[in-house]
Amino acid sequence: MREFKEQRKGLHDRRIKKPRRIVDQASVCTECELCMDYCTTYQMTGEPMFSPLHRLQTAVKIFEGEDVTPLMLESMYNCPKCMQCEAACPLKIDITSIVHRAREELVRRNLAPTDRHNAVIEGIIERGNAVNGDPATRLDWLPEAFLKNESDTLLFLGCLPSYLVKDAASSTYTVLKKLGLDFMVLEDEGCCGTYIYESGRTDLAAEYFQRNVERFKSLGITRIVVPCCGCHKCFKYFYPDVLGDTGFTVHHAVEVIYDLLEENPDLLNKVEKTVTYHDPCRIGRGEGIYEEARKILTLCGTDLEEIERNREEGLCCGAGGGIRSVYRNLSMEIATNLLRKIPNESIVTSCPFCVFNLGFASKKKDLGKQLTYITRIVEDSLP
Hints:
Blueprint: H1 19-26, H2 40-45, H3 52-63, H4 70-77, H5 84-88, H6 95-108, H7 115-127, E1 153-155, H8 159-164, H9 166-178, H10 194-198, H11 202-218, E2 223-226, H12 229-243, E3 249-252, H13 253-263, E4 274-278, H14 291-299, E5 303-304, H15 328-339, E6 346-349, H16 352-364, E7 370-373, H17 374-381
Parallel strand pairs: 1-2, 2-3, 4-5, 4-6, 6-7
């Protein structure tokens, strides 16, 4: 089994925990307002409370015990945690981490999460997924009969690919298999639990995470490969935040496929197609994974057209941080704004949630965009 290359680092939470440190860092803000030019929720609503600047001020008020208004609570929970503000902030304030710790404090004060959050969490506990899918149908996308395989590498598909963006699951599975990666999948995979953590229910997330870690250890799993950016961030950052060392490494499918294709770059047939690649927030700004996906698409023979704001300045699809389930209209507006900035009809991305949310917005707004998960292009190029 080959070792995966260590991935590059982008922005990521540095796990601020102590309330005093949170207040101190939030108070460093000089109110230059640069972040407001990049914040997608502020741009879509025009509401100052929904900007990073005011979220920092609100977080301080929450930790200092002030009364919390409905607007203050909404400002903490309608943040998609896309990190555009952090990329722009000249002081590099960990805004995303501060927002999350404020959510935890709201939960501690019994002011959150919302009823809608709780309904999704209940579904995760009862059905093992965040999208109310039937566990009996989870592997319907599998292109062959399920065979139990023992490996130290787990392909963890995630809720969105398993139930709603099945092409991402099937094409990722097929591509990795054709490229010779030894891996296993779980018949009863369950959920990574990211939604529980994102809601601020760290207490419950700790229990859920621990059960998964114990299960992975019992199976001898030391590497996890994921097509989902939410699962990636959860396993790589949220699990260690709550549990410490987990005993496994985490890799996005794009990284793994890129490494495998580097060894055999002439393997692919050329696909004559012009596409725009959309950088997902969590493996783009979050991890600095920009060029791998583009090089994969180039190897497949596609002609790449870039959106004006790309890579570190890439726009958010509006689905992250748990906002789509609670603030769906806002999520739709953010997605529509992004789609209207992409003249090309064919959009490729490496995040199933981006595929789902952008595809949903395109259909509802009749924008005529075709969203494709990147491994579908690779599968079409493989002999």
